[in-house]
Amino acid sequence: MTLTAWRTLVQGLMLALTVWGAVIVGHYSAEKLSRALPALACAHDRQNGAYCVLVPLQHQMHHRVGESLTQGLQLTADTLLAPLLTLAAFLTFYLVLGKAFCGWVCPLGTVQEWLHRLGRRLGAPLQRLAPERARRLRWVKWAVLLTLVLGLPLVSGLGLLPHDFRDPFCQVCPSRIVSSLLTGDTTQLALRHDSVWATALGLAGNVLTGLVLVAALAWRQPFCRVCPLLALNAAFQRLGLMRLDKRAHDRCGRCGICVRACPMDIGEIASRHGRAAFVEDCTLCGRCAEFCPDDDVIRLRWGPWTWFRSARAYYRRRLRAGSPDGTPRGQRGGRRDAGEART
Fold first, then answer.
1. pTM
2. Under 8 Å CB-to-CB from 54, ≥6 apart: which residues?
3. In this structure, what DSSP letter does residue 333 have?
4. For 5-14, how does the pLDDT look when each residue is reduced to its tens digit (9 = 90+)?
């Protein structure tokens, strides 16, 4: 079995847990399993088995911190206890898998990836960002984290914005709608009419979800590039035991196959080495290691242990299933390019 096959299996199991998990473990257990998962497991999905950390963070910035400041109270340990416990739970999960939560666990990431595979099989034209353009977009996810997740809920809690902004990211997050639709629940598509802001946020969420689902057929992981949870994960990426590592090699930077295999179009993979090769956008999917044509150059590690490493023989076997960009072998556009042929 290839690494991609193993990852697809894990993604399927985690999709079942994060979308329908409450059916297995029960509603009350599901609520307590996690309120701090480093992946977009949506609390609006009533059948899910875990909650995304962004849900409690927004509510705590609004109800705990913002309202305490409004009432003239000091930021005491009691006020900050809930956000600190949420971050502690988040870091506990994050310590185990690091940013692999994005590449292996996140339900919205899985749906985007599977839609892209469908698009490749249907012959949809492959669209991708040049590494330089992808690099210039990296600030967006940080801006979303600071404004929609932390800033606006806090300002709303201070009474300077309407109550509709208590959880603005959840209102526009595509995972809210996608997860609910997967359970047959269409209520999250309905627009609220109790205020103009509620209607506007709901409409923005519907439009964004439609754009992401359609774009995923041609673009790889379109929402991941602006996801605030990837930014939050990146802020703690040095703490995760799961990581990618790359040793210097005289052929690196020439073939560029690892960059073509990367669903996030990270150009630094080809030009850097060590942990510096895997920047904030990396989701630890491991495709760069799968499609590296040299032995032991890129390794997927957990703590001191290496559990997958690039290998020339594996690379040749991997090409039999499809090209680095995900096009199935034998399909139009799935032929090897000159760089792959030389290897």
1. 0.88
2. 40, 149, 169, 170, 173, 228, 229, 232
3. T
4. 999 999 999 9
